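Shipment paperwork, digital attachment
Item: protein structure file
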Amino acid sequence: MIYSGQMLLITLLSAVLVLLPATSYSRTLKACGHPFYPPVSWISNKQLTGLAPAVTQQLFAELGYSVKLRAGYNWKRCLLEVQQGNADIVVAAYRIPSRETYLWFSSQPVIADQVALFVNRKAPLPFKTLDDLQGKVAGLLLGDSFGENLDQFLLHNTRIEYVSRNRQNFEKLAHQKIDFMPIGLLSGRLQSRKLGFHEQVMPLDYRVSTEFYFLAVGKNSGLQQHLPFINRRLQEMHQNGTINRLTNQYSLLYLDQTSAEPRQ
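Attachment content:
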């Protein structure tokens, strides 16, 4: 026989359970991103910051997760850590076939990225088509991709010099040690000003392509179930102006940081 007090307790507990979310997630996720690509993501005070980390933390917080942003990786290492299951999320990455073997990508982009070719102001390349880059020396960051078409063209038609930090590419370009550097137009402009190379390097008017950064989760993470929610929220954030606001906010933040920031 159940007494009235017990019945009241059972009723109250049932009401609480109805009000709770259907699923509760308490797991802390590990995320990493590109360390030298403002305003998308970069390292500041040993922390990963930028538009993509902010969006990632917000969306997964809405799902009930805590996201720990890992800042100790170069870009190639970040991708490897997710591939090996040591991290769960890449806050933003181009979607290319080689990465689709170990990542699930959102269908909605975090941000569109116009890819430009940066050159030395005093020795700009005569350029009309990609064929004009035949035999030239390209500067790339380890792990970088600028879409399958450009990646394959550079691999088979240019001599590529890889570096681990973007400052090295700007320095080499300023001193004419390389002929050009592909990079997102906005990020390249921000970095050239911040790193003090604006007077030595410039983007060509030609835009190689418009690529997209997508939020990606590792295939070992079990997080692909949340992609429909993430896609819906990313679409809303574009439509209500949140992405544009955050892009401007983090662009200014990057430029306003003091010179005491670690050298890239």
